[in-house]
Amino acid sequence: MTEIKRVLITGANGLIGRSLVTTYSKNGWDVIAHTRRADSSLPNNLVADLSEPGSGTSLIHNAGKLDCVINNAANQEIIDASSIDASFIEKVFRINVGAPTEIMIAAKSIGVSTVLNISSVEATNPRAGHEIYGASKAALESLTKSLANSLAPMRIHGIRLGLIGDESLTQRWPAGVASWKSNVASKRYGTPEEVAELALAMSTSIFAFATGAIIDFDGGKSASPGW
User: Fold this and answer.
1) Tens digit of pLDDT for each residue in 25-76?
2) Nearest residue to 123 (alpha-carbon basis) of 111, 131, 115
3) pTM higher than 0.90, yes or no?
4) What pLDDT digit, counting tens, does each position of 116-161 carry?
């Protein structure tokens, strides 16, 4: 009998997080769904505030046996550059860099085979208001590469996402969607379901020869001069 694999998904109650939970569950994985606050709609809900130092380490050890971890939780707060201060930088980097680093190191200690870090095109080209978010994702991508060596043979991958949304995104952010569609080859934004399917594939032996890789999943944004 094939052993059931277990995955921990952080930020499981967001748009992408819920799609990850659904996709892994449908494909026979035992899902541990992390949230900042309790959410009874999610399976095996583990609560942790990743803004607290040491929370990433505790989260891993509270999850039990794991085969895969997906660092999906993120602070995406938009702030004008003139308002950036030390406390804001610390807050964003704590959740987007510090917690994932703790999680990856702790994951290695309990025998996790694969970690997926969810990054963003803003790691290389952030829009106004997302300067610190972009910097934090750039740092996460750097850690994806360096820790893939330091923590081998645990495999660490990054997924650099373009604009992802549901059917309501156009109504909620018409200017951003219009700009995106006019500047990427696909002429559309991606869906959370597509992200989840890619993550699932990267969790399997299909990607066994890859580690430290950042996969562009952005509708062609990486080949575009801007948006």
Assistant:
1) 999 999 999 999 999 999 999 999 999 999 999 999 999 999 999 999 999 9
2) 131
3) yes
4) 999 999 999 898 999 999 999 999 999 999 999 999 999 999 999 9
Quote the CA–CA distance of 185 and 222 in Å, as a whole number: 10
Residue with the two structure tokens 């308002």: 83
CA–CA separation, 89 vs 97, rounded Å?
11
Phi-psi region of 13 (alpha: psi -120 to 50; beta: other; left: phi over 0): alpha
Per-residue burial over 120-130, b if 16 or more Cβ lie within 10 Å, else e, is bbbbbebeeeb
Q: Name the phi and psi angles at 103, rounded to 5.
A: -65, -45
Q: Which two tokens stand for residue 166?
A: 């549901």
87 exposed, middle or buried (CB, 10 Å; 0-12, 13-18, 19+)? exposed
CB neighbour burial string for 150-166, b if at least 16 within 10 angstroms, e if fewer: ebeebbbbbbbbbbbbe
- Give the position of tokens 């967001």: 14
